[in-house]
Amino acid sequence: MPITISEAQTIIDGAIAKAKELNVKVTVAVVDGGGKIVAVNKMDGSHWAGTYGAIGKAVGASAFGRPTGEMQDQAFSPTPSGVRERSGGEMILGQGGIPINRDGFIEGGCGVGGSIPPQDEECARAGVISLMGDDYVQSIYD
């Protein structure tokens, strides 16, 4: 089942709530299973480049079905490099992207950009938790 705009908004709201709690300004992106944008929200006062970071991390999480921070060390190995090149270069494998998997299928990803990487990831996790629950997010790190 594709991610709906309502589900994307739930994710965005959860990520922004965490950003406010951390006192940071971020951009949150949600993409579908093919890496296409479902929704993007840039907080007032956030840096413009965070938008590119958020989208790139969401695409990376969707492409590989794993948190992008786990793939940082592999970002320039042949497969991730090839996927990034062939998909137009927008994928980013750095902390802040969380995949959305349902019933064994990659449904999309959430990416956050604009803060420091651990805070981006914390916000992305909070966003996905708001839709999928804490048990789901814990399971993707196992």
Key descriptive features of the protein:
142 residues, alpha+beta, Beta-Lactamase, four-stranded antiparallel beta sheet, 5 helices, 46% helix, globular
Report on this structure.
There is one protein chain. 46% of the residues lie in helices and 19% in strands. The protein contains 5 helices and 4 strands, in the order H-E-E-H-H-E-E-H-H. The protein has one domain: Haem-degrading domain (Beta-Lactamase, 2-Layer Sandwich), CATH 3.30.450. It is of the alpha+beta class. The two termini are 24 Å apart. Strand 1 and strand 2 form a beta hairpin. It has a 4-stranded antiparallel beta sheet.
Q: How is the topology of this model organized?
A:
Layout: H1 5-22, E1 27-32, E2 37-42, H2 49-64, H3 78-86, E3 97-102, E4 105-113, H4 117-132, H5 134-140
Antiparallel strand pairs: 1-2, 1-4, 3-4
Helix pairs in contact: 1-4, 4-5
Quick summary:
The chain is an alpha+beta fold and about 140 residues long.
